[in-house]
Amino acid sequence: MEIVPLTSSHGNTLVAPFQKSFSEACPSLIHMPVDVFIEICSHLPHYDLLNLMCVCRRFYYWLNSTTSYTTQDIWRTSRLKFDKYMKLDPPEGMDEISFIRLSMIEKKCQICKSDHDIPKIYWAFRVRLCIKCFKKRVTIAPDKIPEWAKDPIDITLVLPHEYLSISRNVTKCVYWTSELTSTLQECLFIPTEELGDWIFNKQITAKNKIEDATKRIKNDQIRLDWLLKEKKDLLDKTVKTLENIKDIKGKKIYLKNYIISQPTYQKALSTLKTPFMDTDPWPNLYKKLKNDLAIKRHRKLIIRRILQLLTSYRKLSDSKGEIFLNDPVLDCLEWCPTFIKPPEKLKDVDDVVLRIRDEAREYLKKRLHKRRGPFSTIEGCNKLLKTCNKTHVPLFKCKLCWGSGRKSYSYAGVNRHLMCQSAHNLYYSDIDDSMIEIDREKVRKLISTWLNNKVLLKTS
Ligand SMILES: [Zn+2]
Ligand SMILES: [Zn+2]
Q1: Cα 42 to ligand 1 centroid, rounded to whole Å
Q2: Ligand closest to the CA atom of residue 405
Q3: Of the bound ligands, which one is closest to the alpha carbon of residue 120?
Q4: pLDDT digits (tens, 9 = 90+) for 80-108
């Protein structure tokens, strides 16, 4: 057994500066008897073992031995126990760790580590590559095989090959380019009388590799499908868990449609076609999603309360007071930090509304933003109409008319009314905004549409 005695310390190694705090933090880990270590390992999936290797030099040493039976055993046990699609034994001459590492398609292309393409394991060459990296490193037979590779013998006769599909109907044999050169070099050093045996042995090895490769292709596909399904299940489970959160009355808080419309969810969904998930593919997805949803829900509650206050008049004024059209809480709402990121636990919406109101006033005082409103003015209303793309909504009344039957007009409409011969018959130059007043009822209604549609969307 190659594993070092457990009493040896790290000595003057690179980890020495961390050793003190490490051993203080977990003395039992550093002085762990080897059989305990092996026992622990037997309960870990291979990706945890890979992580464990990075913990310290000793673990690395124990787990990285390609010759120790114990080490090989640890990896084999883990592979057979935790990965139902890694049941085939390693190919001839390959140790367990290299085999597991190569089999893990979820670990991306060995060369470029690209996130976009799913790599393929080319067992005859013992590499896992994306198609781009593969194409760069192979030579296509027969036309691309260089002349030098055919002298003194045709080297391709003793090498394993893989296949590359050139177009829809054309698949060609390919050889690993660096293997062409290295095998030729090897061949040049073989004495002539031994060449026959050498060729024979090489051909057997190549044949075995090719046969072994065909045996594994199907398994790789099954494993890939399984990984993709696991990933999808994980996402579905996250949604289910969120869906099952209920309020005190037992009512669902987050509806499915609401959850899957979140950008965080959509982003996760867009990566479903790649299997990369040896660890968590979307760290903290649940927490992020829940947080997004909670914020949105809180914003809704705040807006609802503001709308209540806006339309309450005097009825509710003794409790927390109504909101007037010129209150900056309305037109500065989307800039207020408390509204953008409402408190995680919302005990009293009224308090939050008060806080937002203060923030809005503070903003105005410091002139941090140019105010679009207030909505009690014609200018504010015109801007509100523009934001809602509803320039023809009648929000204005003529001040010169009086009586109960006064009509509401659009801004252009009220101007026309003032100029109309049968009404006030004013010259265009005589008209000014002091003759126009706003229809508060209608402005309130438009504000509620604006808050519900625009502001809520804009701050999501
Ligand atoms: Zn690649
Ligand atoms: Zn009038």
Answers
A1: 33
A2: 2
A3: 1
A4: 998 888 899 999 889 999 999 999 888 88
- Angle made by CA atoms 211, 136, 185, in degrees to the nearest 5: 65
CA of 228 to the centre of ligand 1 (A): 20
Expressed in angstroms and rounded, the spacing between residue 82 Cα and the centre of ligand 1 is 27
Q: What is the pLDDT of residues 127-155, one digit of tens each?
A: 999 999 999 999 998 888 888 888 778 88
Q: What's the confidence (pLDDT) of residue 209?
A: 93
Judged by its nearest atom, the ligand closest to the C-alpha of residue 117 is: 1
**pLDDT for the residue 354:** 87
Instruction: Report how far ligand 1's centroid is from the alpha carbon of 102 (Å).
Output: 14
- Ligand nearest the Cα of residue 437 is 2
* Per-residue pLDDT tens over the stretch 171-201: 999 999 999 999 999 988 889 899 899 999 9
User: Measured between alpha carbons, how far is 184 from 180 in angstroms, rounded to an integer?
Assistant: 6
Of the bound ligands, which one is closest to the alpha carbon of residue 127?
1
